[in-house]
Amino acid sequence: MTVSGSTWRAAGRALFGRRARLRWVHLVLGGAMLMPFWLVGMVIQGPLQGPQDVWSASPSLLFGAYGVALPLAAVGGLFPTARPLSVAVARALCGVPGERLADGQARTQAGRMRTAGWCTLHMGVGALVSGASLALPPFAAALIAAPVLPGVRDYLQVEISAWSAVLLPLAGIGMLLALAAVSAAAGALLARQAQVLLGPTPADRLAAAERRATELAERNRLARELHDSVGHALSAVTLQAAAAGKVLDSDRNSDVEFVREALAAIEETTRRTVGELDAVLGLLRQDGAGGADQLGGPTLATLAGLLSRSGVPVSLHEEGALTAVAAPVSREAYRIVQEGLSNALRHGGASPVTLWIAARDEELEIRMENPLPERAPVERPGGGRGLCGVAERAALLGGRAEAGPQGGVWQLSARLPLEGRR
């Protein structure tokens, strides 16, 4: 294909392609939406124009009514439903990417003023294109047909000569092409302005960012719940099952009671974890609706059950009334202890763990220690997420947490405000 041929094709698509046709429909729709306001303008302009037929084709009356209709269209754009409707139509007909337009009603003064400006532009330009689309095609068709239809020539009061027989059809075709060009240009103008007038305002962007941050925080919370509950359960079950298997392999009948206790611990751990998993998955099926308050979960009041079936010997030292700790803080404290036990199981085997929990006037202090293993623990690909989750839990409550080797032991400590931020 030659360069000139591709240029003509591109010009044809720009004037008569699918996008141009949809934008023309969008303009005609804007003109139709202006019609009620234009009729009000006709009624208002009639007495001001003097004694004449209100429905006459006087240009001063028509354009005077048009001038009255535009401010009324702007007022209509201030209504709450104006922006959602305008955005829906612009997405469908203007060819504007949906992500560049705002969703929902305009809740700020700047957003409402932009919507009013869009309605004025859409209806005003649409009315002009609609009027031209009604008036020019019949007249252009008459010019094209005039050389061959005597009745049309008489109506137009033109004389046919060799020049007029050529120029009149060319003039008619030129009018149609000009109308198509003006319509395409007006549609492109509206498509550009839609991104400005119907796009998100700074307040809309801030609200969207806050919604995304809230959703992300909720997803992270659910991920931490799954990691801590399921990860601890798998670590405990693995250790108990391995210990029971070694006892059975040794053929020591005197240790049958140990095997029974290990199996009971596995049963209770999996039953408790299935309940927690069901609660978290229930929220996921609801897309996290209800937030953290509906998540519930175990608290420090049920800590004794966790420690008794943790798979490692735990020496607990308590200070203060742990049952009086606020539920959000108590839930996070339970998960921090659970993650600490998981780390002890995973890296320290059956080494004993010492746990201190103190509820003081303004904060809850948690400290866990277990001996460091003789060998460095095997790192998992990509690293673990448990300690990061502990730090996140503490930070969300306005506290802090840290973990690492301290004088021959592995220590995990956390300080949580008793009131928390939730």
UniProtKB/TrEMBL annotation:
Reactions performed catalytically: ATP + protein L-histidine = ADP + protein N-phospho-L-histidine
Keywords, comma-separated and alphabetical: ATP-binding, Kinase, Membrane, Nucleotide-binding, Phosphoprotein, Transferase, Transmembrane, Transmembrane helix, Two-component regulatory system
Enzyme kind, highest EC tier: transferase
InterPro entries per the UniProt record, alphabetical: HATPase_C_sf (IPR036890), Sensor_HK_TwoCompSys (IPR050482), Sig_transdc_His_kin_sub3_dim/P (IPR011712)
Keyword Transferase: yes
Pfam families: HisKA_3
Sample GO molecular function, one term: kinase activity
Highest rank taxon of the organism: Bacteria
EC number: 2.7.13.3
TM stretches of this protein: 24-48, 60-79, 121-146, 166-191
Limits of the Signal transduction histidine kinase subgroup 3 dimerisation and phosphoacceptor domain: 218-287
Name of this protein: histidine kinase
Protein's organism: Streptomyces xantholiticus
Source organism phylogeny: Bacteria, Bacillati, Actinomycetota, Actinomycetes, Kitasatosporales
